[in-house]
């Protein structure tokens, strides 16, 4: 049986732009496992897990996750990383899609992986969404926020 660290490293490998395998990524999860994008309040289950990694790779086809620190603590694996890639696809937002800018991203993140019996039960991704948006040129509209208040 693979260690929890090996399972998490395999998950990252399968979510890379050059080796993308959404079905393989999904297969690492328990049947009821979840992938939670905490800053954006998004949660994915079942086949949505595979669609989430494929969707991100559609926006950043060369996506790479540079693992800086990885610590396996029993059934929890904590990872500090940087999400890197080039904005080559439309980035969906509630307002509309941000067209590709060809800007590079290098976004700090921390991931917590919770495993049970050799499968991922929950994956919580804490990414710096504000940094990502700024790097693709989508700066906050403070004037509108102030006017609305």
UniProtKB/TrEMBL annotation:
Q: Which residues form the SnoaL-like domain?
A: 18-122
Q: Which domain of life is it from?
A: Bacteria
Q: Which InterPro entries match?
A: NTF2-like_dom_sf, SnoaL-like
Q: What is this protein called?
A: SnoaL-like domain-containing protein
What organism is this sequence from?
A: Actinoplanes derwentensis
